[in-house]
């Protein structure tokens, strides 16, 4: 026999945005069911921030988000700013710390955040169901209820079919990144089914893969990291770069990857904040007998300098500074401040922290996240075409959008 559940609100996906939405709606007295496909709630929360969950950022503002509509996120982020989430974390006595660039992390473990959200949900009577897979979602007019739109969700659980009847459906299924952590496309399918537009999706916050000479270069330096400024189009990020066996990673690369399209050049400044040309020319005056390698070693990792001079600058020997013509030093300086390279591809959804694109914000109300032409249907979190920079901005969007929907469902 089918199990039939009637609730005010059904939330598809028990991740960051879904759980925030659930606890907010339930705290208003709504009956709420969370339908989670996987065996566990909040897997991405547990894996996030290297296990410490970078749960928000003190500098949250629209400039840290990518979307076809740069203004869409403003309203939700104002209604539920980082301070609101920090208050919740403090009320649960979770120790946290501020790291660079306003990033807030748990001191103990990301599991503190998941435990907090789960506790809030349970305290407010949210029904949390795992291993339950939505199969179809249909809307109908409720004749007994002033002709309001209602929804029927058919799901499959290990114990059989579950039919959920509800007034509001919140799609919080996340996105395509890291399928093993729950990444799925069902949220997009429901959006399309109800006539919402999808902005093309791409992996974001993702390492680059290299081929040919660049791959050999990266392989030899695998494990070496240094601060750089990575630029593409009109965006720049000054953070660490990490050479890997496959290509390039590290925060600066993850950040710029969200702005990169295949075929485009990425420019790396290996000496951010310095004019390498001036350094070299002044070095030649002050330390004429010093050799080039040991001079640059004061600023850059030795293995990188040796390889860069040989492979990129075409300087195979290790001349003394006095022996190098000024024009050549100037050229080398320009190369160090503006190394142009072409990644072959990104590592794709397998390792991407986010999915760019998603449900078009044109079709959603920015205050409530409700579909403009489909009453009672809401989209929150990463499934929406709003993606943050690295640094806690993605969770802040998940909390804020989940909260806004939770206030009105
Ligand atoms: C490795 C990693 C580390 C990260 N670290 C950080 C960080 O430190 N700070 C930060 O701000 N962001 C971080 N992010 C990004 C952040 O995790 C996401 O932006 C955020 O989790 C999005 O929240 P969401 O609720 O929209 O989606 P999710 O958290 O992905 O939740 C979606 C949920 O829906 C479930 N689901 C999927 N399909 C269905 C379906 N059809 N039916 C029912 N349930 C379904 C999934 O199993 C999952 O539980 C990280 C991402 C990754 C991959």
Question: The CATH topology of the largest domain is what?
Answer: FAD/NAD(P)-binding domain
How many separate structural domains? 2
Mean pLDDT score: 96
Count of distinct strands: 21
% residues in beta strands: 25-35%
Please identify the structural class as seen in this structure.
alpha+beta
Helix content: 25-40%
Radius of gyration, taken over Cα atoms and rounded to an integer in Å: 25 Å
Explained architecture:
By secondary structure, this protein is an alpha+beta fold. It folds into 2 domains: 3-203 and 353-406, FAD/NAD(P)-binding domain; 208-346, Beta Barrel (Elongation Factor Tu (Ef-tu), domain 3). The chain has helices at residues 16-27, 43-47, 72-79, 82-91, 111-123, 186-193, 212-220, 251-257, 276-286, 292-297, 302-312, 326-337, 393-406, and strands spanning 3-12, 32-35, 54-57, 65-66, 96-98, 103-106, 127-129, 133-142, 148-157, 160-171, 198-204, 208-209, 225-232, 235-243, 247-249, 266-269, 339-341, 345-346, 354-359, 377-379, 387-388. Strands 1, 2, 7, 8, 9, 10 and 20 form a 7-stranded mixed beta sheet that branches. A 7-stranded antiparallel beta sheet has the order 17-16-13-14-15-12-18. A 3-stranded antiparallel beta sheet has the order 3-6-5. Helix 3 (72-79) crosses helix 13 (393-406) and helix 9 (276-286) runs antiparallel to helix 12 (326-337). Flavin-adenine dinucleotide (FAD) binds at residues 12-18, 35-38, 43-44, 47-49, 53-54, 134, 172-174, 177-178, 181-182, 184, 186, 353-354, 381-382, 392-395, 398.
